[in-house]
Amino acid sequence: MDTLKHVINVLSAPQVSFLAAAIAFFFVFPPTDRFQSWNRRLRLDWLWTVKGGILLHALVIGAFFLSTLDPNFRAIVTKPDNVPIALLLFGTLFFLWLSMKQACDNDARLANDQKPNEYTDPSESKILVWPDLVYIELIAGILCMAALIFWSIALEAPLEEPANPTLSPNPAKAPWYFLGLQEMLVYFDPWLAGVVFPVIIIVGLMSLPYIDTEPGGSGYYSYSDRKLYVSLFMFGWLLLWVYLIIVGAFMRGPNWNFFGPYERWDLHKVVALTNINLSSLIWVKLLNQPLPDNIIIREMFGIAMLGFHFLVIPPLLAMTILKKFYARMGNVKYAVFMFLSMAAVSLPIKMFLRWTINLKYVVAIPGWFNL
Amino acid sequence: MADSKQDQADKLKAAGAGKAHGHVAKGHVASGDGQTRRSFISWVVVGWAAFAACMGGLATITMRFFAPNVLYEPQQTFRAGAVSEYAPGEVSTRWKSKFGIWIVRLDDRVVALSTICTHLGCTPNWLASEQKFKCPCHGSAFRMNGINFEGPAPRPLERHKIYLDDEGIMVVDKTVSFRQERGQWDEPESFVAV
Lengths: 371, 194
Fold this sequence. Notes:
The structure holds 2 protein chains of 2 kinds. Chain A is mostly helical. Chain A has 2 domains: 1-113 and 131-156 and 172-271, no CATH class; 272-371, no CATH class. Chain A has helices at 2-11, 14-28, 33-41, 50-67, 71-77, 83-111, 129-154, 179-185, 190-211, 227-251, 278-286, 295-298, 300-319, 323-329, 331-357; strands spanning 364-365, 369-370. In chain A, strand 1 (364-365) and strand 2 (369-370) form a beta hairpin. In chain B, strands 1, 2, 3, 4, 9, 10 and 11 form a 7-stranded antiparallel beta sheet that branches. Chain B has helices at 2-29, 37-66, 96-99, and strands at residues 77-81, 91-92, 101-105, 109-114, 125-127, 132-134, 141-143, 148-150, 159-164, 170-178, 192-193. Chain B starts with a helix and ends with a strand. The chains are: A mainly alpha, B alpha+beta. Chains A and B meet through helix 9 of A and helix 3 of B.
């Protein structure tokens, strides 16, 4: 049992778990036809059937309750702060399954030339506001209030002593919905992770209806019609948001160190994480030379990597595997779409480099631009 | 019936004439009364001036809002004791909670390190066993001398002015800070030599 726990602790380290999740992701949520054929061959779409859903939920919930037998795991998940987060994650899983099931049902129906499940005859599709809708809202409101009252009685509010600027709690955590941002702040400069990226995320979400103007799948759940969009959105949602919330809530312990789910939150855990810039890594470690004085020459590898990522890969994709997509989108839409996608992909790349080789900055121009 | 109808028609006519007359008269009399181009422009100027004044007032109030209402400030200058009170290689947390300062005795000097993390302003903890300051918010770490080497902090901790007074007691002045990335750590006021 201890060996198993140890193995899970090791596997849950972000460099392992994130990589595994990211690879598995594209088979579970295939962005292209090729991935979808692999998805079918591996029978992964079985997850979105009733039987698959029951198994999925039974596995996750079973593993969770089995894990609460472990004192370290129990200590973390039963913190009053964390209980709603755990509930929320089960909710996320359920609604993910529910929407994917509806999407797969509709995909099958459309493939058989049937109308989607949500389709109703326009002449019959009427619901009365009073009493139908108002009653539902009333009942929902009462249930929410009952849940809140129960919650506030059952779990004590984690109140602490008055704030003291010279004393930061250890670990000091943001509210759950900002844990993804807090995790991002670990890997990027504060103005990038705290200002620029949130703005890009919000502007990107706002621009979605203008980027994705294809009418297919509008008004009902579907996957096959809009693979690329759903897959990319799920990547951002599940891997860059939910995953980071899980990590931030349950796996970041004292001194903001990583702890496996069954690891004791040891205040004195020693972890060596000495940072290194890409420039020092290449010039000093690989080429055995001192850092050049000229900043541009010093940082040219990082600048070249950034340029390749944002300026070379998108046109390459447009000429190869995204040829049809590019023709449909046109220049401006394609450029905006690609900028947002490549930015979303660059985030985990940088995080992964920090986890594996402690890379601090790809481009480091102190006082001006550190990325 | 016919009479009253006729009456009504007359009344209407009279009213119409009166109206027309009044209108013409008004137009004549009021050549300075909000109708001409000149007066229209002056009203526009007044209107815009009032609007600008309102916006200016709003901006002033907003800017005022950013200045804290609290006048109380913790003491910025304090006496930190004699050099001999600090062992070589020691990081003293004696003044951390009161003044936000670590007194650090390095090989050849005593310095006053700020306890504000240069990432987002949390207060790091001194981990004696690992000989580093570690921030609990995002995991930045600093060496004993204040240089950042782990996590996201973009620059070293700041040092504050420290000097010996007439009695040979060290005085820390938090209003003056010295930043390594600006090459200020060798300025004589940034340390007390031992």
